[in-house]
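Let us work through a complete example step by step.
Step 1: write down the sequence.
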Amino acid sequence: MTEFLKRGVPGLSSIKDLPVTQDAPPPGGFPSIRIERRLPNTGPTGAAIFGIAAAIMGYGFYQLWGAKRDKRFQADEIYTVRSIVHPVLVAEWDLRYLEHQRKEHEREAELMKNVPGWKVGEPTTKHRWLPPLESWARRSLL
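Step 2: predict the structure and record it as tokens.
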């Protein structure tokens, strides 16, 4: 207790009358003070993180390589099939064009039968013209 609370108590006239107690270490001494730095382990090391990331990326590149290989195989297969079917389709377009041209010549002959000197199927202009269906078929298949 402090001196204020003890003042006026019989037998205590001065602070010098208070009992003297000396601080001393406990028996066996004080425990040692830890001054070295000990941080807790907060996770994997940088090398472990780098190794895990490299493994994940390696697996991803392996999957990408496999997907590209499959896509290339499918594209080669489609190209092969189209190159085999192409002559058949071009022949079919040629037959359609010839049938269309024959019908147009018949229609032209019917319309121009009263015009003297008119020749059916002869071009009226001088230019080079390719049938659109044949050129479209060649462009779309290869």
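Step 3: interpret the result. DSSP finds three helices and no strands in the chain.
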